[in-house]
Amino acid sequence: MASSGRRASQERGKAAERTRERILAAAVEEFGAKGYAGARTAAIAARAGVNQQLISYYFGGKQGLVEELRRRWARAQESVTPPGATYAESVAAHLDATLDNPDWSRLVIWQALGDGSSAESDDEWAAAQRDRLRQAVERTRRRQEEGEITGGLDAEFVLLVAYALAFAPIALPRMVEGIVGVDPLSKDYREWVVGQLARMTGRRP
Questions:
Q1: pLDDT by residue (tens digit) across 28-68?
Q2: For 146-156, what is the mean pLDDT?
Q3: To 5 degrees, how large is the angle CA 102–CA 105–CA 108?
Q4: What is the pTM of this model?
């Protein structure tokens, strides 16, 4: 009897987790398409195929949803680049992470534009994002100091160019396709970016 009760409890827990994940996946789509301000919990619930009240039950509402998605994005970014990766491997990994997940990347763009609820957590997120970017600049600078890439360019510029090339296919897909002549999400575009950045940042004899 006790064993049967535990199994039933475990099944309910698994079902709840699946529901949470469906809601989060739907939220990524909705926030990516409309931003925080334009997204509606009713639309997220409809995408997920759940009762709207479950969003409040599991996440406390729209703000709780976006906060959970921010935490997941931050954790994912920490594991994008494997330890010891070269500059080219690092760029390629970030390109894949950005272009393989366009809904997530659109959400990041919305957040970068300042789309939020004006809650205190938004300020905390922005501060954490600035800190992550400062760390990325320092990693780029260390690569320059170690001789992996040229020191003839500002580390900030190198990083900004890499970010711009990664997010341009999401923010400006038709412009990128018109300029480069390939599908902005394709393997061809990614290889071209990695190759061009390697040439630009390569150490000069």
A1: 999 999 999 999 999 999 999 999 999 999 999 999 999 99
A2: 95
A3: 155
A4: 0.85
